[in-house]
Amino acid sequence: MSRVPHSERVRIVELCLKSYTQREIAELTGRSTNTVTRIIQAYRQIQAYRRMGEFLTPLMIVALALPAPLKTKFWSPRLMLIRLALRSSMLNLQVFHLHGVP
């Protein structure tokens, strides 16, 4: 399995944004429909994380760095969910950037 070059990934996303179907994009680029689907899904996930990042409040950012409170020994369920969601989304975003996804 060969790695899809960055320029080809960009072209696949651009074609998707121009409303080509995934099957049409696969035919135009010579890639399998599974590869095209995977690249488009990764792009959409990154865009969702970027939009989510625009709404981070200072409290949410601090929640990423703080340990559990000493008095209660646990986080409130709501804060724990926010913390887990932010940590996993930041980790996924870093992984996508390492792989050169646009």
UniProtKB/TrEMBL annotation:
Which InterPro entries does the protein's record reference? Homeodomain-like_sf, TrpR-like_sf
- The principal localisation class reads nucleus
Give the GO cellular component terms, alphabetically.
nucleus
Where in or outside the cell?
A: Nucleus
Q: Tell me the protein's name.
A: Uncharacterized protein
Pfam families in alphabetical order: HTH_23
> What is the scientific name of the source organism?
Haemaphysalis longicornis (Bush tick)
